[in-house]
Structure to design on (474 residues):
């Protein structure tokens, strides 16, 4: 979004057509221009192309969220931020009894739905993939369910998320502090019928969704393979919570580290297990390039246009399928590998809360399109020494729940956590057979290529739809 001051002259007829609204939102968003251009096409209202609960366009009621830890009694729960993420394996869970009740059962996500944020940051969208089916969504996610007899879901998503669909969606926004839209605000949204282009767009969007599911499964498998090769077993969140002994324990403490979280018995056992069961292991500090096992540098953040800027990604955007950080001036950025990180860097969220649903200590692999960004100081950089361990293989280990617990055992701080550098350096990293490590590294890198291909597919679908709309059917 441009941060420049904007001025726009509008004809009085626009005021008449928009109920004499005097707030600038509807007139600055481009929604009116989009509607004028769509008049060149045969269009149908959105509500005539959807089906299901409440006509196929709906959000949910506010409700008490009873979170649970045991997967046997819970269902994965999506929020407006987690619906944009690639990894669905670490979602919080709400009570399955509540979820399947009459009041909330219709909030279940199904493949092919278009998910739209309808409170706060309005108009962000996601196409529901196979690995999102069976999740429940919160009340701030609006669902648009395509009627398969009238329109293909992939095309509908491509249009709604295009530069013609988004402005019309957000033009109905209301509210002063917290912005909202409701289903009836977009019910009459015009959807152009584009013939064969609809099939092409749908195929591209579905291809993108399938690639992302494949990539996520491939990365999950890479982690399992690495642990097996190291003679280790992963540990689930529920197992850790049940067995951690964190409520009360005794420990011999260091003179310099007095915080209980650094001595949780199960974490100590996990560390010893890595050392005793692995064929070989090294401390994390010894498998990374010298001087790189640290958070990023601090630098000036001067907003800039695309020509002079680069996207800055923080922890909030870092785990999204397509990070959308602000654009800052390149001229104020030092040329440093901790700023412009190299291929295969592992970025770990290094500041935040320590609750189970917080991203602190979660890892992301930086490859392909993600190298086009710069990353905030709030990420720990783990840059593997590839003469010792391949970076894709190291990521497969670091993202495991086992390594996640070891990382969290290094936490220091009160409200905002950070990593204790001495404890971090000592985390044991198992070294596995070279041939298996090469195979795992290839698998991880291939998975991230699939993520990049999926972005290209979505972009191609939107570009196709936008071009045909602009051409007015010519």
């Amino acid at each position: 979004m441009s941060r420049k001051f904007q001025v726009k002259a509008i004809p009085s007829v626009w005021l008449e057509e928009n109920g004499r609204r005097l707030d600038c939102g509807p007139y600055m968003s481009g929604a009116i221009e989009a509607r004028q251009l769509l008049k060149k096409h045969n269009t149908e209202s959105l509500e005539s192309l959807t089906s299901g609960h409440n006509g196929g366009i709906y959000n949910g009621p506010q409700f008490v969220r009873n979170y649970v830890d045991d997967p046997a009694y819970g269902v994965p729960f999506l929020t407006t931020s987690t619906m944009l993420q690639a990894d669905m394996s670490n979602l919080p869970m709400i009570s399955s009894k509540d979820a399947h009740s009459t009041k909330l059962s219709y909030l279940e996500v199904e493949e092919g739905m278009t998910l739209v944020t309808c409170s706060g940051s309005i108009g962000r969208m996601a196409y529901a993939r196979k690995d999102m089916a069976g999740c429940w969504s919160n009340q701030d996610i609006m669902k648009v369910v395509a009627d398969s007899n009238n329109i293909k879901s992939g095309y509908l998503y491509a249009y709604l998320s295009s530069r013609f669909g988004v402005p019309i969606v957000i033009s109905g926004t209301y509210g002063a502090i917290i912005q909202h839209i409701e289903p009836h605000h977009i019910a009459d949204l015009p959807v152009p019928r584009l013939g064969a282009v609809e099939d092409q767009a749908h195929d591209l969007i579905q291809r993108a969704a399938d690639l992302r599911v494949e990539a996520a499964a491939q990365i999950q498998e890479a982690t399992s393979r690495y642990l097996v090769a190291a003679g280790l077993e992963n540990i689930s969140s529920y197992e850790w919570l049940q067995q951690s002994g964190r409520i009360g324990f005794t420990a011999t403490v260091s003179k310099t580290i007095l915080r209980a979280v650094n001595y949780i018995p199960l974490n100590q056992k996990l560390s010893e297990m890595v050392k005793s069961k692995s064929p070989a292991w090294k401390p994390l500090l010894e498998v990374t390039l010298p001087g790189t096992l640290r958070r990023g540098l601090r630098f000036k953040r001067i907003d800039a246009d695309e020509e002079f800027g680069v996207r800055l990604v923080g922890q909030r955007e870092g785990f999204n399928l397509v990070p959308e950080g602000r654009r800052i001036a390149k001229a104020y950025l030092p040329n440093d590998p901790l700023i412009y990180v190299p291929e295969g860097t592992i970025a770990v969220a290094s500041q935040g809360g320590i609750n189970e649903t917080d991203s602190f200590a979660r890892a992301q692999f930086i490859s392909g399109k993600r190298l086009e960004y710069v990353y905030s100081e709030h990420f720990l950089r783990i840059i593997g020494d590839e003469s010792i361990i391949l970076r894709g293989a190291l990521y497969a280990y670091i993202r495991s729940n086992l390594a996640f617990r070891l990382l969290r055992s290094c936490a220091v701080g009160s409200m905002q956590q950070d990593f204790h550098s001495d404890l971090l350096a000592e985390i044991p990293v198992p070294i596995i057979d070279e041939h298996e490590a090469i195979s795992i590294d290839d698998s991880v890198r291939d998975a991230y290529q699939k993520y990049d291909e999926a972005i290209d597919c979505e972009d191609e679908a939107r570009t196709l739809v936008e071009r045909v709309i602009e051409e007015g059917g010519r």
Summary: Residues 124 and 256 are 46 Å apart (CA to CA). The chain is about 30% helix and 15% strand. The two ends are 31 Å apart (CA to CA).
